[in-house]
Every structure is written in C-alpha cells, then in structure tokens.
Design goal:
This protein is mainly beta. The chain has 1 helix and 36 strands.
C-alpha cells in the first residue's frame, strides 16, 4: 500500500517518496503517467493541460486546491500568499524558482531577464499581459493606464514606489533624485533615453529636438505643460510668469542660470554678455531676433521697475 489520495475531479493519485507519477482515471479504469513534477519546497503538483490545480503537501499527506493559474507564454505559476515562487516550464516539464516579486497593491509580477511581462491580479485570480517594459539602467517598470508607479530594482530584487508621473503627449517619465532620464513612448511601447536635464530649483525639464515642453514640479509631484520656447541659436529657455531664468545649452546638454530679465510691455529679453539678441513676444508666444541696444533695454528695465513700485 502506498499513500494514495483522491484529487479533485475523477482522478486518484499515487504518491511515492513525495512524488506523484501515476494517475488513475476511473472513467477508463486505467492508471497512466502524467506530467506531474516535484516542485521546490517539498510539494508535488499535478499539471493537466498546462493548468495546475492540486498541490500535495507531504507534511500532512493530503492534496489541496491552491491558487495556481496559467500565465501567458506556456508557464504555470504557483501563487501562495500573493507571492509567486515556482514556475512550471512545460517545454522541459520542470518546476523552477524564478525571480518573482510582490509589487505594491494587489499585483504579483514575474521578472524574467530583467523584463516583466505577466501580472497576476489576486482580486480576479488571473494572470494577464500588461504593458510592462524594460527601461534603461536596469529597471523594469509597470505601466498601467499610461501611469508608472512601481519600479523593480534588480540589484536589490525589490519593487519600490518611485516618483514617476504621466506627462502630456502620452509620455511617461521616470524621475529619480529630481532628474528624469527615461521616457516611455506608449505609441511604440518602448522606454528610451531622452535629453532630460535638471533645471535650477525644483524643476525637471524634457528637451526634445531642442524644445522643452513639459516641466516636472517635485513639490507637487506632477508634470505640467509650460510656455517654454526655442530661442535662436542653441539655447532653450524656460518662460515662467513672464520671467526666464534657466537656459538649456544643447551643445553641453546642461541647464545654467543666465541673467535674463523681464522687459516692459510684452517682451522678455535674454541678456547674455551684455548683449540682448532674442526677444520673446508673449502675445504670439514666440522668440525672435531683434536689434535692441543695451541702453534701450536698461531704460526699459528701469521703467518697468518704477511702474511696479
């Protein structure tokens, strides 16, 4: 006699040395070999049509149902306490441990080769594909409704919340230490490096094709559109409340403070090396070259200051 137990359905199973190899089908009154393998942690599992439903616990010598579901891509997963630790590979008929971690919320995620492709939703007990992509610098990010909230750090094998926000124009940005370096393009479902730099103060700016359109405000943790325009030459300027304070130099890919002042009327002027060459017209939201002498600019600045007083 051997430790034979009744599984769910119409199958009787023979357990021998913590392995199950023979399955009795009462409908045909026959014993047959089945793709049953020994998992990690001393459990034997019955795989039927790439589904796993019954788990044998040798410590109590009984079979019990477990929240095991079929993922995409031909893998069966064992979910225990909202964690997934064992993965069944039908191609080699083996169970193996995999780098699967618990995300924030109610989702379990499978990380394979620093990629995350399958998401387990315990509320519906199902695995589903999700728009999860590999970012630069070894991070995997979960994108849900064009929002990214959870970042997987392979170096420490944990998921952590990160200050990632949805920008305008359908792009998701990863902000780390007040810098944004990775941009997710939903149209192509890819993360790419972009020339994003840290401005002065608490703002991160995205420069794309020498234009800056999106500004990240860490104080409120949101991306907002700002009236930022391309100046003449190689400089991008941030226009905020009729003042321009930060200048982006694409040739060196850095933002630097510049002596930029607000003129009278609707014009903002860039003062660089005691010359003013570019004028921002707020009425048309454009930068244009203008032949304004330095003396005239100083007069305008003085008049503007006196009128404010």
């Amino acid at each position: 006699m051997s430790s034979i137990q009744q599984s769910a359905g119409d199958k009787c199973l023979l357990s021998n040395n913590q392995h199950v190899a023979n399955v009795f089908y009462p409908t045909i009154s026959r014993w047959r070999m089945s793709s049953i393998q020994q998992s990690a942690r001393g459990k034997s599992l019955l795989s039927n049509n790439q589904q796993v439903a019954n788990v044998f616990y040798p410590t109590i010598s009984t079979w019990q149902m477990s929240s095991i579901q079929q993922s995409a891509g031909g893998k069966c997963f064992l979910s225990n306490n909202k964690h997934v630790a064992n993965v069944f590979y039908p191609t080699i008929s083996r169970w193996r441990m995999s780098s699967i971690q618990q995300s924030a919320g109610d989702k379990c995620l499978l990380s394979n080769n620093q990629h995350v492709a399958n998401v387990f939703y315990p509320t519906i007990s199902r695995w589903r594909m999700s728009s999860i992509q590999q970012s630069a610098r070894g991070k995997c990010l979960l994108s849900n409704n064009q929002q990214v909230a959870n970042v997987f750090y392979p170096t420490i094998s944990t998921w952590q919340m990160s200050s990632i926000q949805q920008s305008a124009d359908g792009k998701c940005f990863l902000s780390n230490n007040k810098h944004a370096a990775n941009v997710f393009y939903p149209t192509i479902s890819r993360w790419r490096m972009s020339s994003i730099q840290q401005s002065a103060g608490d703002k991160c700016l995205l420069s794309n094709n020498k234009h800056v359109a999106n500004v990240f405000y860490p104080t409120i943790s949101t991306w907002q559109m700002s009236s930022i325009q391309q100046s003449a030459g190689d400089k991008c300027l941030l226009y905020n409340n009729k003042h321009v304070a930060n200048v982006f130099y694409p040739t060196i890919s850095t933002w630097q403070m510049s002596s930029i002042q607000q003129s009278a009327g609707d014009k903002c002027l860039l003062y660089n090396n005691q010359h003013v060459t570019n004028v921002f017209y707020t009425t048309i939201s454009r930068w244009r070259m203008s032949s304004i002498p330095q003396s005239e600019c100083l007069r305008l600045f003085k008049e503007a200051g006196q009128s404010q007083k």
